[in-house]
Amino acid sequence: MPLYKTITPNSQTTVKIWKIEESYDQLINPLDLKPESLTRVLGMKSELHQRGFLSVRHLLKAFGYTDQDLYYDTNGKPHLKDGKHISITHSFTFSGVIISDTDVGIDIEQRRDKIAVIAKKFVEYEFEYLDKQASDYINKLTVIWGIKESLYKLFATPGMLFREHFLVIPFTMHDDQTVCWIDYKGLKKRYTANYLEFEGFTCAYVIE
Predict the structure, then answer these.
(1) Which parts of the chain are coiled coil (predicted)?
(2) Under 8 Å CB-to-CB from 103, ≥6 apart: which residues?
């Protein structure tokens, strides 16, 4: 079982990360999927996406849940039937799930230089402290993207924009934690953000 990492940031919150090494058949055979989940996975054109979807269901099992315990609201935000808060992510060969008593969001991204090309689409305030010549510029951009993606998943409100409505305060790659804000239509809310790197990937997660 390639459960890659388990993190417990506080007594109410657990993060589990899966390294996707199994074949599609190895992943789907042990699972009992709801009809709508089976329809969804069979309709995916990419086997990589199928394996990501299925690995998340194995992470649910690692938490003691099944596919039947998970449902999505009209904004596409996942929920658990017992009322716990959940967020889900998968990127290429890794997937992650965070479950907590409070609202949470998680994102895993593969670190790639091309993120610098689209930085202006999701960075504004953060350019004040970013150094484009620094060796960790791509690392920091990936952390900022992951944190903002996590905030977006947590809030799940159409119309929120990464560049305008989410702020990440200055941080270093050695800290593994920073503070971020949502500033949207009069709402200002502060969150703790955590981040880590492994095997060319970056994981960020936000806890209310």
Answers:
(1) none
(2) 85, 154, 207, 208
Per-residue pLDDT of the chain (208 residues; tens, 9 = 90+): 589 999 999 999 999 999 999 999 999 999 999 999 999 999 999 999 999 999 999 999 999 999 999 999 998 899 999 999 999 999 999 999 999 999 999 999 999 999 999 999 999 999 999 999 999 999 999 999 999 999 999 998 888 999 999 999 999 999 999 999 999 998 899 999 999 999 999 999 999 8
| CA gyration radius, the chain | 17
Within 10 Å of residue 72's Cβ, how many Cβ atoms?
Answer: 12
- Two tokens, residue 56: 């998340």
Enter the tokens of residue 7.
């993190």
Structure tokens at 117: 């090309």
Give the predicted TM-score (pTM) of the model.
0.95
In the structure encoding, which two tokens stand for residue 152, read together? 């977006």
